Amino acid sequence: MSALKSIKSALLASAIAAAALPVAAPVWAQAAPQLQSFAPLVEAAKPAVVTVVTRQALPDMVPSQFQMPENIPDPFRDFFERFGAPGMPGMPPAPEGRPEERQGLGSGFIIDESGVIVTNNHVVAGAEEITVILDDGSEHEAELVGRDDRVDIAVLRIDAGRDLPTVAWGDSDAVRVGDWAVAIGNPLGLDGTVTAGIVSARGRNINSGPYDDYLQVDAAINRGNSGGPLFDLEGRVIGVNTAILSPSGGNIGLGFAIPSDQAQEIVADLLEDGRIERGWIGVSIQPVSPDIAESLGLEDATGALVAQVTPDSPAAQAGLMPGDVVLGFGDEPVGELRDLTRAVAEAPVGAEAEIRIWRNGAETTLAITPALLDAEMAGTAEVRPAVVEVPQLGLTLGTTEAGVAVAEVLPGAAADEAGLRAGDLILSVNQTEATSPALVAEVVQAAQDDGRGSVLVLVEREGMRRFVTLETGLT
Questions:
Q1: Would you indicate the residue range of the signal peptide (predicted)?
Q2: What is d(CA 295, CA 267) in angstroms, rounded to the nearest whole number?
Q3: How far are the Cα atoms of 45, 132, 275, 389, 441 from residue 42, in angstroms, in the given order?
Q4: Which residues participate in the annotated binding site for substrate?
Q5: For 273-318, how does the pLDDT look when each residue is reduced to its tens digit (9 = 90+)?
Q6: Is 134 helix (H, G, I), strand (E, B) or coil?
Q7: What's the CA gap between 239 and 216, in Å, rounded?
Q8: Distance between CA 117 and CA 443 in Å, rounded?
Q9: Who is most buried in 57, 131, 234, 243, counting CB within 10 A?
Q10: pTM across the whole model
Q11: Looking only at Cα atoms, what is the longest distance across the chain?
């Protein structure tokens, strides 16, 4: 028994000694910031955050005669037939419409003591009057210096008659996922509201425009926060709060801010001359899917597929063609569409650059000189009666003045699943120009006879072109 007691005593002593040893904390716990309060940041930054109020007159309402809805319930139909309604024969006319005014609310922040304010373009777009309310409650009429609808930035100017508090730009490139972020703004008209969270992701594309590169944050952002600043812990602006994703329209922790590095460059350009200059080469592009990559002999689904080349554009002059895959522009690799749009937009206008492409199973390089971006519009054509069916794809084709067009799409067929619809133009099949509906049918049949399970089709809709792969039904 004494030996057993000795063993137990030794084990107990060892356990006590082990418990007394210091335990190393996890690396993440050791690196955790000792944050006490956001109050000092808010006290310093909040005076430079403003409310932006916009007013826009709406057209007069036009009175019209009452028309009985076809699906109105019988009791209401009997009532109106017996007693009438405004605008019906024998009844007083409908009241004249009265002009209405639309009012908008947003946020902004002062970057220069003279009264230069940054906000979102969508906050002030279409406004006839813009009023800025400072943190002290004073109201000032604002001048629109310039705006950029592609990145959703606008610059305003007010004359407050005194130097105003300001905030400074931060470095959004240095922001890491997991860093703290603080938003100050005017959500739902509640001015000076402060919310905090973390940076959830970088480089987000929410399909709001060709230059999407958002910081995603979980700090509460709601309607009215648009145009307000997103701060780091040093009180520097790392983003411009711009959008949320929500099924209800309210905050669910998915907020998006334009990175400060992107916004700062645009603001500087707008302050210089009120406009933004971007490079343009004149192509419509689409993603390279695995099916498209395989059909073109690419090992990976990467790059930007050229669907359309604008005549007389820099791309046309450089020799780019539909079906080319852009792999690089200048010194920048092109892995996805926005890589190319950003590289071209940032390229100096009028300066020659190299563009790497994939064509006919090999990589080649062309010289191209970006021009100044200038938007263009295109029209549509009416489809004439169908003359040819392509059952492998589920299409009925007709002809238009613009060429071969889709007259009908069989529900559930390959074309339907790919999103084709009546009125789409068929420009080429397997890089063979579609000169007639009959030729399209021949090319599809030839592909099927060769044992190919899909064809690459170039489609145009409302002036925009894209490639789609359609299965031929071969099993």
A1: 1-29
A2: 44
A3: 5, 20, 33, 67, 67
A4: 122, 152, 224-226
A5: 888 888 999 888 888 888 888 888 899 999 999 988 889 999 999 9
A6: coil
A7: 10
A8: 59
A9: 243
A10: 0.65
A11: 117
| 226 belongs to the catalytic site | yes
Domain map (residue ranges) of the chain: 172-264, 279-372, 388-471
pLDDT, mean of residues 82-101: 52
151 has pLDDT over 50: yes
> Which candidate, 257, 251, 93, 73, places its Cα nearest to that of 175?
257
- Does residue 9 have an active-site annotation? no
Identical topology for domains 172-264 and 279-372: no
Could you give the residue ranges of the DSSP H alpha helices within 246-399? Answer: 260-273, 290-296, 314-318, 337-346
Of the listed 107, 172, 226, 260, which one is catalytic? 226
Tell me whether residue 248 is one of the annotated catalytic residues: no
Please give the C-alpha separations between residue 210 and each of 91, 206, 286, 342, 374, in angstroms, as whole numbers: 54, 10, 12, 8, 14
The domain made up of 172-264 has a fold known as: Thrombin, subunit H (2.40.10)
Are the beta carbons of 330 and 347 closer than 8 angstroms? yes
Tell me the CATH architecture of domain 279-372: Roll (2.30)
Is-contact 356 327, C-beta < 8 A? Answer: yes
Q: Catalytic: which of 148, 152, 212, 232?
A: 152
SS3 413: coil
Instruction: Return the structure tokens found at 374.
Output: 């200038």
Distances in Å between the alpha carbon of 335 and those of 198, 326, 339? 28, 9, 7
Task: Report the binding-site residues.
Answer: 122, 152, 224-226
**Residue reference for tokens 């947003």:** 106
Single-letter residue type at 433:
E
Alpha-carbon gap, residue 332 to 355, rounded angstroms: 9
